[in-house]
Amino acid sequence: MDLGIKGRHALVCASSKGLGRACAVALAAEGVHVTLTARGAEALASTAAEIRKAYPGVEVKEVVGDITTLAGRTDALKACPNPDILVNNAGGPPPGDFRNWTRDDWIKALDANMLTPIELIKATVDGMIARKFGRIVNITSAAVKAPIDVLGLSNGARSGLTGFVAGIARKTVRDNVTINSLLPGPFNTDRIRNVSAGQAKAAGVTTEEIMQKRASENPAGRFGDPEEFGLACAFLCGAKAGFITGQNILLDGGAFPGTM
After folding, report:
1. Which residues contact 213 (CB under 8 A, 6 or more apart)?
2. What residues are paired with 64 via a beta bridge?
3. Could you tell me the CA-to-CA distances from 50 to 72, 76, 86, 141 in Å, in that order?
């Protein structure tokens, strides 16, 4: 399927690994020029090199820095000042017991998973409106619909972003600018391995045992493949996806038991 976005420019945050990387690869496969950001220079360079090799006609830019900081966002927007596509993504806060979290812990979570996406939307959405094309995809979490007790920092911050997006996505769509969120469940990424390691330590079992149990409990009987996530993101960024906005789309193997 030709998504009609060849030659467009995308800023894909936290895209050296995991779901962000999968989104960048899927967009590059559609002929989209991509600007990648990440804190780790080595992993970022490796991902950029792989995309250049696979899709030689695509321009790939690398920005090393923390997208959750003003400096990181400034550098990213300098490299890609007028993106047609924005994929918001940042590593989730650590799991734990809410009794142990300080105000600083909460502010850090809000900065990363709520305020950073809002700042990037604010910096790019008017240009998209003026050009009559824009696709903004926020990578949040299935925990927005089904909160996970040990991920309270993430539950709160990502739910705040979800509420914000619900308000503005209906105002931008008239100008062919859509804003949607993808809510990943258990995907085979570093994030799930880190969370599983914490649960394993608390339970006195191995990380592998926790991961096998989680995978088997999912209706799909497995974790998601990041490639599946990237393709869903690319579709939402497509030229013909302009009638989809303000949505929170679960990719969780059927884990959420509700009808809505």
Report:
1. none
2. 38
3. 23, 20, 21, 27
Segment 30-64, tens digit of pLDDT: 999 999 999 999 999 999 999 999 999 999 999 99
* Cβ atoms of 55 and 32 closer than 8 Å: no
Residue among 210, 211, 213, 218 at smallest CA distance from 253: 218
H helical segments located in 11-115: 18-29, 41-54, 70-79, 103-110
Task: Supply φ then ψ for residue 249, to 5 degrees.
Answer: -100, 120
Return the SS3 of 137: strand
CA gap 196, 225 in Å, rounded:
17
Q: 3-state class of 6 per DSSP? A: coil
CB-based burial label for 90 (10 Å; 0-12, 13-18, 19+): buried
pTM score over 0.90: yes
Which tokens belong to 130?
Answer: 């003026």
